[in-house]
Amino acid sequence: MSIFRYTCCKHFSGYPCCHRQWKHPGHCRFVHGYSRGFSFWFAAKELDPFGFVVDFSSLKPLEERLKSQFDHTFLINFDDPLLSEWQKLHEAEALDLRVMENVGMESSAALVWKWANELLLERDGGRTCCWKTMASENEANTAFYDLKPDWFNN
User: Fold this and answer.
1) Cβ of 116: how many Cβ atoms within 10 Å?
2) Which domains does the chain have, with CATH numbers?
3) Residue of 19, 6, 14 whose CA lies nearest to 107
């Protein structure tokens, strides 16, 4: 049972990108790719004038941010020892580099949760929030981030 009165979920998929976890002792330290997808769970204190928790068509800025970060990009941790080499390849237009705190799915789920809540707080003034996200790298591997923002009081 949900702790919120009104909820809905939106899924975005089809973001082919690659990354590596350079500290990992196994094969994850090699560059490899997935087609990432993201799901967002939204809650509202009350429905908007159209009867929605979140009008999905109003999420275009979030969708654009997902595309910019994850569509045909190469994700690398900020502390990767090959960062200068990746930057040279980016400058040579051999890859589209994105430097992140952590490229893992758990951290990606937390990052997109933050992005969704920045959008909703600015736009809806606290009426809505994103309380859960899912980041998937394929059908078998997913990670979740589940946190009600401090400013949302249902």
Assistant:
1) 27
2) 6-146 (3.30.479.10)
3) 19
CA distance 39 to 134: 5
User: What pTM did the predictor assign?
Assistant: 0.94
DSSP conformational letter for 134:
E
Q: What CA–CA distance (Å, rounded) separates 153 from 126?
A: 8
In this predicted model, what pLDDT tens digit does every residue of 81-130 receive, in sequence order? 999 999 999 999 999 999 999 999 999 999 999 999 999 999 999 999 99
**DSSP conformation class of 71:** T
Query: Nearest Cα to 9, choosing from 60, 51, 50, 59?
Result: 59
The model's pLDDT over 138-147, given as tens digits with 9 standing for 90+, comes to 889 999 999 9
Angle (nearest 5°) at CA 112 between 109 and 117: 125
- Helical segments of 4-131, H only: 60-70, 83-91, 105-124
Give the C-alpha separation, 33 to 76, whole Å: 12
pLDDT value of position 147: 96
